[in-house]
């Protein structure tokens, strides 16, 4: 049986070896962005230093190598989520991927009076694009309520469905609560009512195996920088029968077939949605990150992280004056909390001096905060390299916060 050794894993992350304010770095901000293993950093350096070139159109050796590496990463992504490589679109991030679906599929297929269902737990990137489209197309947005302390019941969404429902968009995992949504069940609801399902997978794919065929989702997106890869790269999976009927979101080079002065024809997916010079090196590095994840094992990573989250939740919940926001039994990835004595921004600033990196704010989830009359929370989040000792350090630092505020 393979042993999960966080010491070996941590040793592969250069940033985790540094000190902050002369203290050992305790990185608990992985939901915002994961640290990068050395092999990903080496892949970036090699791609820029050794065989960098633009892709697809060059006939020289460097371009051929860059193209092979770039398209090789598309194949790695396809295998990672179990789909065809022509269903994998490289974007600049999950935000761009969601906007692509909203503008391309939404503008073509939505009509006045149609309805879009989301949840109150969405990241703003899965709210604002739908709001923009709804204003232009006179479409109604409905939001499903989420109980922060319970597993999400898909019937809440089912009860919102009408014959006008055209899109059901939801997170795989809440970036504030850590609640894991029943993706397969919600996608089935969408299919039954003739709507498309759009899954924001940013906080899900980093903690568990994703099989888009098994989930039967129409669209699934995630960002590379949350998957141990670089910024500037994201993935949109879309079923090919949908992508093939969608118009381009951006126009330019590489997404065309024939260009005339008055009219152009477009390339088949996925190139139809990849106008201009793509994020070449970023895509290659994401492929390297996926190789790294596959070697560790995404299921093993997920089990390890779940143990850490369960431990951290119990530990923080035992501290007087600390309130954990989000206690669903199947939660993963993040722990959001407040303290009676201090604002989250003060908490984050004070414990930073202890070398502890957390996130404080509304986490781009203001509707969720508003629903529970919160302005912000402090959020600790984990990655493959996180340990129980990280949360011990966090708990110790919170006692210092209490002392500073005279508690």
Q: What brief labels describe this structure?
A:
alpha/beta; Aspartate Aminotransferase, domain 2; 2 domains; 7-stranded mixed beta sheet; 4-stranded antiparallel beta sheet; 17 strands; globular
Please give a structural write-up.
It is a single chain. The protein has helices spanning 6-10, 38-49, 61-81, 94-109, 128-137, 155-158, 183-192, 212-215, 240-243, 280-296, 298-317, 344-352, 366-371, 388-404, and strands at residues 19-20, 23-24, 26-27, 88-91, 115-119, 140-144, 165-171, 196-200, 219-223, 234-238, 256-259, 264-266, 322-325, 334-339, 356-357, 359-361, 377-381. 38% of the residues lie in helices and 17% in strands. The model has no long low-confidence stretch (mean pLDDT 96). It is globular and about 70 Å long. The strands form 5 sheets. Strands 4-10-9-8-7-5-6 form a 7-stranded mixed sheet, sandwiched between helices. It has 2 domains: 6-29 and 297-404, Aspartate Aminotransferase, domain 1 (Alpha-Beta Complex), CATH 3.90.1150; 42-294, Aspartate Aminotransferase, domain 2, CATH 3.40.640.10. With 407 residues, the protein is of the alpha/beta class.
Name the structural class: alpha/beta
Rg over CA atoms, rounded to whole Å, is: 22 Å
Q: Which outline best applies?
A: globular
Number of helices: 14
Proportion of residues in β-strands: 15-25%
Helix content: 25-40%
CATH class categorisation of the largest domain:
Alpha Beta
Query: Which CATH architecture of the largest domain?
Result: 3-Layer(aba) Sandwich
Largest sheet: 7 strands, mixed
Based on DSSP secondary structure assignment, what is the total number of beta strands? 17
Mean pLDDT: 96
Please name the CATH topology of the largest domain. Answer: Aspartate Aminotransferase, domain 2
Strand order of the largest sheet: 4-10-9-8-7-5-6
Distance between the termini: 47 Å
- Ranges where pLDDT stays below 50 over 5 or more residues in a row are none
CATH superfamily of the largest domain: Type I PLP-dependent aspartate aminotransferase-like (Major domain)
- The protein's oligomeric status is single chain
Number of domains: 2
